[in-house]
TrEMBL record:
Keyword hit for Flavoprotein: yes
Superkingdom of origin: Bacteria
Protein name in UniProt: NADPH-dependent FMN reductase-like domain-containing protein
Family note: Belongs to the SsuE family.
Pfam families: FMN_red
N-terminal signal peptide: none
Alphabetized GO MF terms: oxidoreductase activity
Coiled coil: none
Stretches assigned to the NADPH-dependent FMN reductase-like domain: 2-141
Alphabetical keyword list: Flavoprotein, FMN, Oxidoreductase
Native source species: Tuwongella immobilis
Keyword Kinase among record annotations: no
InterPro entries referenced in this protein's UniProt entry, alphabetically: Flavoprotein-like_sf (IPR029039), FMN_Rdtase-like_dom (IPR005025), NAD(P)H-dep_FMN_reductase (IPR051814)
């Protein structure tokens, strides 16, 4: 099972639209991914008491990561980093089990020229600390307003091919750690 994590809670985000596109890419490879949309996090997930006791409403989000054989994280770039809600969500996941020895693939999307390179590099450090198996083939979408249609579908065939190649290779990477996948 693959989980695709939309790394922002911004309504109508380009990141979420790209996640939907990536889900179709995985579906074309006969994999139906689970999507985790941080915009759907329950309000009680942000109460100070969550550090001591996680609300039951957070369980589906946590389970989607904990039961995944591989996780694809799609992150936008906000002020030179990944969104605070993504860090918070990662902080709410069980440590170290959430990412320990779990294959993780990264995609960056940004309006700027570097395609969220900084947030992806920051996530790599965090995921290394958490013991994830990091898939080395990252995809960066720069100038997303020009590179993606309003629906989130890449305009250029080359970018579509890069996403297809990344998904196919990531599934092979996941199978190295989960042969039954």
């Amino acid at each position: 099972m693959i989980t695709i994590l939309s790394g922002t809670n911004r309504p109508g985000s380009t990141t979420r639209k790209l996640v939907d596109y990536l889900a179709t890419v995985y579906q074309s490879l006969d994999v139906t991914p689970t999507i985790v949309d941080l915009q759907e996090l329950p309000a009680e997930a942000f109460l100070p008491s969550v550090y001591e006791k996680k609300p039951e409403s957070l369980k589906p989000f946590t389970d989607a990561i904990m039961h995944a054989q591989g996780v694809v994280i799609v992150t936008p770039e906000y002020n030179g980093g990944f969104p605070g809600v993504l860090k918070y969500f990662i902080d709410m996941l069980p440590h170290p089990a959430a990412f320990q020895k779990r294959p993780v693939c990264l995609v960056g999307v940004a309006a700027g020229e570097w395609g969220a390179l900084r947030p992806v590099e920051q996530l790599q450090g965090l995921l290394s600390y958490r013991g994830a198996y990091q898939f080395p083939d990252r995809v960066f979408v720069r100038n997303c307003g020009a590179q993606l249609a309003a629906s989130g579908i890449p305009v250029a065939e080359d970018l579509q091919k890069r996403f297809s190649a990344q998904a196919e290779a990531f599934l092979a990477f996941v199978k190295r750690f989960h042969p039954a996948a």
